Amino acid sequence: MLDRDALLFSPTRDGVPSSDDNFYASDIVAAQEAMDAEAAEVLPFQFNQCTYDLGYIRQPLYACLTCLNNRAVCAACSIACHGEHELVELFNRRHFRCDCGTEAMGAGSCCSISPRDDAPANVENRYDANFEGRFCFCGRPYDPHTETDSMYQCLTCEDWIHHACLFGQHSDDNASPLGEDDFDMVICERCVKGNPGVRKIVERYAGREDSGVMIIGKDDQVLGKAVLPPDEDEETEGAKAEQVGETEGEKAGETELEKSAEAKPKLEDPAEDGPTGEAKRKAEEGEDEPAAKKVKTDASAPTLPPLGLSASNLSAASSSSPEPSTSAIPSTSSQPTSASVSAAPSSPTKVCRAPPVLPPGESPLAMLEKEGGRANIYLEEGWMMRWCRCSQVAAGLPLTGFGLHKCLPLFFDFPYMLEEEEQYEPPEDPDAHKSTFDLGMEHLLNRMPRAQALDSVRAFTGLSDRLKTYLRPLAEGDTTITKELIEKFFDEERERRQASQQ
């Protein structure tokens, strides 16, 4: 009996044993069942709705190497429109609009599941080497059948990085200073060095004691690991921090709202103000963030916004404010999950709780780079709640340096660092669990008149019974079923049908 891998990945035609092989009928049935199971696992969703009209959202993408210009399409179009093309699965990407049916994929490009052809190119989409099938610092193509190393998606650029390219050892070697379960997200070295906004945020935390923003120092020493109090695990501490945070947040929120009720008009519903709105993104998954929206701010004197304003509704709140102000800054509703998190509330504060500013070039990250180390950042679980969210400048302190006592504006361009992003998930396919045979029969019978459908079922049942009767003695006699024997059966069937019609 052939095993599942032999059936799916054999050198014969599509995993089905070739006519030159000796095999049992059960092998063919098993091969079909294996392929049905594989299809249900890979394609558990419906593919009759293109996401183009949803605009720029975070969604699963598939780069098409067959069409021009290495563009990408949504999950539905990857099946309905590009099913015969060479595709590369990119997984989730933020702020991306489906390219199917746009002029960016070449003249005459059309989407078969929506009335769209040669639409204008999506100018806000961001492309990189992943869209050409190359990943990581090393630029290697990804082959799911041969790749054995673990890969991690960078929080910022969303490229996929090999474990070996991060730590210098294969993930199976168990020799890395950090294991897969020791960190939640990674920010790759290219983003740390090439993105000034990201650099400004992480440098103050990276490698600092108990920050939870880790780097790998000299001799594979892990710097910045969060420390839990003795006799308390992370879950217990996180529950305590959450309870305390909720109580303090409610009190602070009531106070600030009372102070600002007379001075400021009531904010409108952010879901109605925003250009896309929460209703539009309701189908997206909480694992990933809404599309990042850049917000311009004014340097006027800041005032504390009402609590509960989220990063995803930042632009909406800004537009509804009576005058420009740097106070329209996001806060998150999530709560800390570790001891070091409890010092960094999710609501805007006046007190800066970030690690003290060090002289230029003396931060652990800068020292690591001087020593030639890898500047990759590893974020421990609960990292979103570890950032300081102070939004006002303390009296007498200048607006210079690392945004002294004014940390939250640093996240204007990176709202996904403050709260989980929403992600579009294709609708589930209710027929995904059904076999190809069942789907074929349903498709056929549902389109036939009832009387004709019943006749077809009876005819199929009769043919199946006669074939079993024909093959049973051959199987009992251990006779190999050949092409000639099958042709002989259908010749006899043809003669029987002709005789009955006379």
TrEMBL record:
GO terms for cellular component: cytoplasm. Coiled coil: none annotated. Residues 248-269, 278-297 have a biased composition (Basic and acidic residues). Residues 228-356 are annotated as: Disordered. A zinc finger (UBR-type) spans 48-116. Pfam families: zf-UBR. It comes from Sporidiobolus salmonicolor. InterPro entries: UBR7, UBR7-like_UBR-box, Znf_FYVE_PHD, Znf_RING/FYVE/PHD, Znf_UBR. GO terms for molecular function: ubiquitin protein ligase activity; zinc ion binding. Keywords: Metal-binding, Zinc, Zinc-finger. The keyword ATP-binding does not apply. Residues 48-116 form the UBR-type domain. This is SPOSA6832_01976-mRNA-1:cds. The lineage of its organism: Eukaryota, Fungi, Dikarya, Basidiomycota, Pucciniomycotina. Residues 306-349 have a biased composition (Low complexity). SMART domains: ZnF_UBR1 (SM00396).
